[in-house]
Design goal:
Order of helices and strands: EHEHEHEHEHEHHHHE
CATH class: Alpha Beta
CATH topology: Rossmann fold
Strand content: 5-15%
Bound molecules: nicotinamide-adenine-dinucleotide
Number of helices: 9
Keywords: Aromatic hydrocarbons catabolism, NAD, Oxidoreductase
CATH architecture: 3-Layer(aba) Sandwich
Oligomer: single chain
Pfam families: adh_short (PF00106)
Protein name: 3-phenylpropionate-dihydrodiol/cinnamic acid-dihydrodiol dehydrogenase
Strand order of the largest sheet: 3-2-1-4-5-6-7
CATH superfamily: NAD(P)-binding Rossmann-like Domain
Number of strands: 7
Helix content: 40-55%
Structural class: alpha/beta
Radius of gyration: 18 Å
GO molecular function: oxidoreductase activity
Distance between the termini: 46 Å
Family: Belongs to the short-chain dehydrogenases/reductases (SDR) family.
Amino acid sequence: MGWLEGQAVLVTGAGSGLGRAIVDRFVAEGARVLAFDRSAEKLTAVKAEHAAAVEVVAGDVRSPHDNQHAVETAVEAFGRLDTFIGNAGLWDFNGSLLDTPADRLDQGFDELFGVNVKGYLLGAKAAAPALRESGGSVVLTLSNAAFFPAGGGPLYVASKHAGVGLVRQLAYELAPEVRVNAVAPGGMDTDLRGPESLGLATTRIGQAFPINDVMRQASALHIAPGAEDYVGAYVLLAAKAQSSTITGAVIDASGFGTPARPATPGA
Ligand SMILES: NC(=O)c1ccc[n+]([C@@H]2O[C@H](COP(=O)([O-])OP(=O)(O)OC[C@H]3O[C@@H](n4cnc5c(N)ncnc54)[C@H](O)[C@@H]3O)[C@@H](O)[C@H]2O)c1
């Protein structure tokens, strides 16, 4: 029997990368999943793979209406909602303060914070009543950039640090009915894009940045994980029987929590 047998879960950014890996693993653990993404094309592929275990909603996490619609669709289809996973995100491709023109910082901030921070806030707002009823939980995707500099530029790093604030405040506000936690993955070669306002909407992370090489060289474990390697922490936090005492926590799954040792001992 899986760790999530009978649970109903909503995942944002579920069309590719980490969100898609969460959907696949959660279904394997016995959950039914509402996959929410702005890409209808990606959602068609998710639905084709999982049939009845997965419902899909296309929409924008920056919209209160779209978040509400996703939650209502989940509750209608599954009769309940046990976990909301805020995961849709944008990266800033390391754009720096000094090299980014002020008007681009202005627009880039609104777009990136709109997805990475407001999207989580609005998703939690829409899901809270159903989660309080089920005694459920919120799990947010953060990053090594939630703890350390240089996992992006100031826009991305600040947005992921803001996510830690959301975890702490929402864990406080939604207790004792709802647990609120996060997972901070490290790099992975996904379909991660950047803000349109910074001209980064058509570039994938791996096209512009040697993410797997960086992970192999600079992370403590010298591995380049795939999205599926990070999802165990989400299963743990969503599984009531396994983590009923955990709230307000961020699991650092990034591999950057301790400095990297040289690949060759003694070098
Ligand atoms: N890839 C990495 O190296 C890395 C590292 C640490 C953390 N993360 C975090 O992981 C999360 C998932 O990213 P990923 O790497 O799997 O990228 P991804 O692009 O493969 O997945 C993100 C999904 O979010 C969707 N999305 C983007 N904006 C949206 C919006 N406004 N409304 C609805 N859906 C939207 C995209 O269509 C995409 O399917 C993000 O929060 C990201 O910050 C990624």
